[in-house]
Amino acid sequence: DGILIQMPLPKQVNTEHIIAALNPAKDVDGVTNTNVANLWKQKRSDYSRFCVPCTPRSAMRILKAAGIDLDGKNAVVVGRSNIVGLPVSKLLMNENATVTVAHSHTKNLPALLRNADIIVAAIGKAKFITSDMVGDDAVIVDVGINSDPETGKMCGDVDFANVADRCTMITPVPGGVGPLTICSLMENTRDCFLRNR
């Protein structure tokens, strides 16, 4: 009923060929062209007809569960991957946030982040976002999964220990977005089953 492609695939495997071979009706992580197009065509938060990528869906769930009003808020997504950065930016726009997608070529990222109400960190660099880059009262969703170069333990893209006191809310790594991503995967699998019956 559901198929998940664990990416990134090895370099010798053509990722686009693998994705193209996947039946969109069984695409539980929303990576096929059909599901990507459905996400970008959608203007409201009704995703009952297709699968939204699991991690972005989880990030949005956290924001909603925390009662964060996204309407008109300045959101910065750090990272532009097809699996997290771009889909979460679209989901934020669907909630009427004003979204900036930052990446490795973004000029003056610290100033951009200091002005953000919402930060979604999905850049894949351990403790990349530091306390001097975050404005007071920011809401931070840390999607990163990295190995801390000092301790070898799992850590996020945000320097949690030094940033937590400055913001209104921050998700931990591990224990934040990750467990909800698994729940979203199971929900998407259930939804595929129901739609395909």
Give the DSSP E fraction (strand runs of 2 or more residues). 5-15%
What integer value in Å does the Rg equal? 17 Å
The helix/strand order is: HHHEHEHEEEEHEH
- Order of the strands making up the biggest sheet: 2-1-3-4-7
Q: Report how far the terminal alpha carbons are from each other.
A: 10 Å
Q: Strand pairing plus helix content: what structural class?
A: alpha/beta
Tally of DSSP β-strands: 7
| Percentage of residues assigned to helices | 25-40%
Q: Describe the main β-sheet briefly.
A: 5 strands, parallel
Poorly predicted spans: none
Tally of separate helices: 7
Shape: globular
Q: What is the overall pLDDT average?
A: 94
Mind sketching the topology for me?
Blueprint: H1 15-20, H2 33-41, H3 54-65, E1 74-78, H4 85-94, E2 98-102, H5 109-114, E3 118-121, E4 139-142, E5 146-147, E6 154-155, H6 160-163, E7 169-170, H7 177-195
Parallel strand pairs: 1-2, 1-3, 3-4, 4-7
Antiparallel strand pairs: 5-6
